[in-house]
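Write out this protein's structure.
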Amino acid sequence: MVPHRVVVVGYDNAELVDIACVTTALGLANRLGADPMYQVVLATVGGTAVRCETGLTLQAQARLETIRRADTVIVSGGAGHQAAARSAELVRHVRRLAGGAQRVASVCTGATVLAAARLLDGKRATTHWLYAAELERSYPEVLVDPSPIFVRDGTVATSGGVTASLDLTLAFIEENHGAELARWVAMGMVTYLQRPGNQAQMSMFTAAPRPDHAGVRLVTDYVVAHPDADLSVAALAARAGVSARQLTRLFREHTGESPATAVRRMRLEIAARLAATTDLQLSQIARRCGFSSAETLRQAFAARFGVSPRTFRHTQVRT
């Protein structure tokens, strides 16, 4: 059968892992019997070598301008993404190849290049959470969602930071060859049996730093220690020795959230941690985290993280 041609687009200061996660997974799929096989090509403008962020150099296999067709186009991310997006030649060829491809994708900050090529206009997309605001400011036509591991909108896919490219590549392998081959590739790479694309990128316990304000910090520390307590705004304001109105103002100033929103977020973060690291029943987790029932927890969890607590539990490695 005619091979499925995958063009991985590189540039100066690309991230090595962004490239390697894709190429290694597809290469392993070939060794495990992918039919049709993947024909993977690393291409750059002029065929120049890719000088990665780490200082290592990858030799390109093709000049981007001489490639006539691609079934899948994947743009790498890395510190050089802004310079790559300013390269009219690189952007032009990405757009040209995308016109005839079955699907187009980006890894991490490679979304910036897709946005520059106008391939994300009006589409939902993600990127590394640290660069999401920058992407949104630079390309207001893009519907940026910094949370998911990867997002697919029609034939265009974008993935979050670095190793999220592996999750996206596994999804592509499953789409082409079925879940069983994707499972064997995941096992061969000793990774998750494929995390859902809408799972949150960031470790939920590092998502928000502790507030600088002592009063707000006192309240948030209390919430973390007593998620099953009365955490109404009135109760928390009394604990902080301020009015409910003052507490709300302080929270918005120092966390960007209302007290009620912050409480709900922290309760869900604790619930996620318990789901990932314990064998507690969901009803027990719900009670410990201040939810009235397992169903209430399930609804709130799915609204925030895009998956149920049970599905989330099954995708985690116990720590």
